[in-house]
Each structure stands twice: as structure tokens, then as C-alpha cells.
Design brief:
The chain is of the alpha/beta class. It contains 14 helices and 10 strands. It has helices at 6-15, 55-60, 74-88, 95-102, 106-117, 121-138, 143-149, 155-166, 170-174, 232-243, 259-270, 279-285, 292-300, 327-338; strands at 25-28, 33-35, 49-52, 64-65, 181-189, 192-198, 203-207, 223-226, 277-278, 313-314. α3 packs across α4 and α6 packs across α8.
């Protein structure tokens, strides 16, 4: 793997970015040690820091490994998480068996997996399973067929998972959203008109658009109606997130994607305001090192602009890459976060 450039290394080190662990190590001249970028120890003065490709390079420079963050475990940790996600893609695996398969103690691997992906191994497996159920329900099969195709053995778990993660019952999903009401409004921002749409569970769509044309694409049989005054407060809070994106938000969301997409969206939400990750680093943070292109696609599939900050993802060389709502808006949002 190619070592990131100096600017990327400095930004990851300042942010203690876990996604950068394994991409390079941080050498400290005054103490003679090297650390992971995410090491929780107090930062030394920048002029005493150097960045090296890996532990071997650091040891060749006369440095020794930090006993607190154990930087030589980074590559092994990343590989273990990647192997675990591959195993979970084949079906649910008990934690003790999953940890043994990748060579870790169960309690330690549970923490490691959650730190890398934002969710536990069990939650990751549930996400994969319900995503498969959603794909099956979108086809012509029955709810019962979708349940067994997705790997469920009993209806109770299937219906409980589906209603929580899909935002509606499986039968309604299969019928294209029949019976679900999505309310929408358009608000003005300094970056252009903003569409805000919500179900009873939370915001399902935020887009720089002035109409609701795309709301009926996924659920063509849902009821799409103007929200009017009922959405005024919610829309005002979304506008505030656009105008001051560094402030963060606690808005209720009703969004869904594949397990990998949701892991990418969670990784995006963990990036500090004003900081960025490359798409490769984002893929690693989502537990799938090397899935750079897929991470970019997950950003493109993000249904709630700004609230899930996909504008914080850049190409490895620091260039903007893509953005569904225009590169000028992407640059403007980052500039606002950086003050």
C-alpha cells in the first residue's frame, strides 16, 4: 500500500484518525518511539514528529514501538476485520467462532471490530441479512420466500429486524411502500434550494433540489405529500446544518442501505468537522480495506446530504473527487467547517 502524502498524514495524526492506522506510523524523535496515528498519548510538538511507511521503516530509523498503542498490530487488526466481514457475508457466525477464525480473543475482537466499523459483528451480520431481505422483497417473491432467502429461520426475528431497519413492515416494502406517507418541503439555503423529506420515523431524504421528483422512485406506491407547516421546524434544523455544518446535529433519520453502505455512512459521521478521509481510508474505516470504489459508490448513495457528511471524503491525492450536488457545494461545506 502506498504511504499517504505529508498533508494527509498530518491531518490524520492531528485527528487521531483510526482509519489511518496501518497506512503509516508516527515517529517521535524526542522519545525514540513510533505510534499508530490514533495513539491516545499526548501529542508531541509537530517539529519533533516524522511519518514513516511502516514499523519496519521506523525500526530501521532507530525507533521502538509504543507500548500503549502497539503500532505493529495495525496491519493485523485491519486484515482480521476484513476477513471477519468476508465470513459474515456467508451468514451469521457466533462471536467466539468468528474471533477464533481470525486469531483473537472474543472480547478483544468485539471491541476491535466495533472500533473499525462502528457496529458489532452481530449488528453487521443483521445488516447484511436484512439487506438481503430487502433485495428479495423488491423482487416478485412473497414475504415468506424473502425471509428464508435472507437466512431467517423464524418469522419473529425477521419482522422485528425488518420494521426497525426498513422503517416499514416487510409486506409494505414488498408492495412498493403502499400505505407509507412521506412528507416533504423545500427550504432556501445560501447553497441553493434544499429538499427535506421525512417519514413518521425521521428524515429520509435531504437533497439540493427544488421538487420531490425522486421521492417516488424507490417506493412508487407510497403517499408523497407536501409537509407544509408540519415540517417547518425539522426543515429549519436541516438548514442550520447546511449553514453551520461544523455544529453537528441530532436529527432523527430514517435511512437504509446495505450493511457496507451503512458502515461507510457511520464512518463518515465519525470524521471530525473540517477534516477529511480519502476514499481508501474510508473503505478501511468501514471494515473493507481495498473497497475504495465501493466506498465512493456508498457516498454517492447517501440519501441525506450534509447530515451524513459525504463531502468529507476526498481522493487520495487530496482532490475533491465527486459529489452528487456539485463540487462547488462540496468545497463550500468544507470551507465552512474549517472556518
Amino acid at each position: 500500500m502506498t504511504m499517504p502524502d505529508l498533508q494527509t498524514c498530518q491531518a490524520a495524526w492531528r485527528a487521531r484518525d483510526r482509519a489511518a492506522d496501518g497506512a503509516f506510523v508516527v515517529g517521535v524523535r524526542t522519545t525514540g518511539i513510533y505510534c499508530k496515528p490514533s495513539c491516545p498519548a499526548r501529542h508531541p510538538r509537530p517539529e519533533n514528529v516524522t511519518f514513516l511507511a511502516d514499523g519496519a521503516a521506523a525500526r530501521a530509523a532507530g525507533l521502538r514501538a509504543c507500548l500503549r498503542c502497539r503500532p505493529d498490530d495495525s496491519a493485523r487488526d485491519t486484515e482480521a476485520v476484513a476477513r471477519a466481514t468476508a465470513l459474515l457475508a456467508q451468514g451469521p457466525v457466533p462471536l467466539d467462532r468468528l474471533a477464533a477464525a481470525v486469531g483473537y480473543a472474543p472480547h478483544h475482537f468485539h471491541r476491535l471490530f466495533k472500533a473499525a466499523t462502528g457496529v458489532t459483528p452481530a449488528a453487521w451480520a443483521r445488516g447484511l441479512r436484512i439487506a438481503r431481505a430487502g433485495d428479495a422483497l423488491t423482487g416478485s417473491g412473497t414475504v415468506t420466500e424473502a425471509m428464508y432467502e435472507a437466512g431467517y429461520e423464524a418469522p419473529a426475528r425477521f419482522y422485528r429486524d425488518a420494521e426497525r431497519r426498513m422503517g416499514m413492515s416487510p409486506s409494505v416494502w414488498a408492495r412498493g411502500g403502499r400505505g407509507v406517507t412521506i412528507r416533504w418541503t423545500v427550504a432556501a439555503t445560501t447553497l441553493g434550494s434544499l429538499l427535506v423529506a421525512a417519514t413518521d420515523k425521521g428524515i429520509c431524504r435531504v437533497a439540493f433540489a427544488d421538487d420531490a421528483a425522486d421521492l417516488s422512485r424507490r417506493f412508487p406506491l407510497a403517499t408523497i405529500e407536501s409537509g407544509g407547516d408540519a415540517l417547518a421546524d425539522l426543515a429549519a434544523r436541516v438548514v442550520a446544518a447546511v449553514e453551520v455544518p461544523a455544529r453537528g446535529h441530532d436529527l432523527p433519520l430514517d435511512i437504509r442501505g446495505t450493511a457496507f453502505q451503512e458502515a461507510v455512512w457511520q464512518a463518515l459521521a465519525r470524521i471530525p468537522a473540517g477534516e477529511t478521509l480519502s476514499y481508501a481510508e474510508l473503505a478501511a474505516a468501514a471494515g473493507s480495506p481495498g473497497a475504495t470504489r465501493a466506498a465512493g459508490s456508498a457516498c454517492g448513495a447517501n440519501p441525506v446530504a450534509v447530515l451524513v457528511p459525504c463531502h468529507r471524503a476526498l481522493r487520495r491525492d487530496g482532490s475533491a473527487g465527486g459529489y452528487a450536488w456539485g463540487l462547488e457545494r462540496k468545497a463550500a461545506l468544507l470551507a465552512r467547517e474549517r472556518g
